[in-house]
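Quick illustration, no need to memorize.
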Amino acid sequence: MHDLTSLESEGFVVSSELSRIDFEIVYRWIAVESYWAKGRSMATVRTSFENSRPFCVYVGDQQVACSRVVTDEATFAWICDVFVDEAFRARGIGTWMVGEAVTWCTSIGLKRAILATRDAHGVYERLGFRALAKPERWMEIDTR
């Protein structure tokens, strides 16, 4: 895994600029390659990012990762749609990107952030995430 200094020295940057997002690539990652959102429409992918705070990674003009924060910017955030292009995995890019999202959440005073993962618990634990303390309090409606 590369450290932040190494990634930056290699030209990687994290950006929240919506105008920089390559929606063709993000659509493929989220709606075709991800395990959690197969079949999502392009319109849904675009709208979900437009109505969230994106955190994406680029090297030069090439987008190599994406994520978004769904939040009220006052009390709560959900970090989701975290995806790193397969060619760039195992370099710490996803950890860095989500870490930047967590830092932003903290900087605006949010006290709670959540995310869900099938297989990257250890990655997110390094950023301070833990299993829900009281999962019995959480409920959902899932009509997928």
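The two ends are 35 Å apart (CA to CA).
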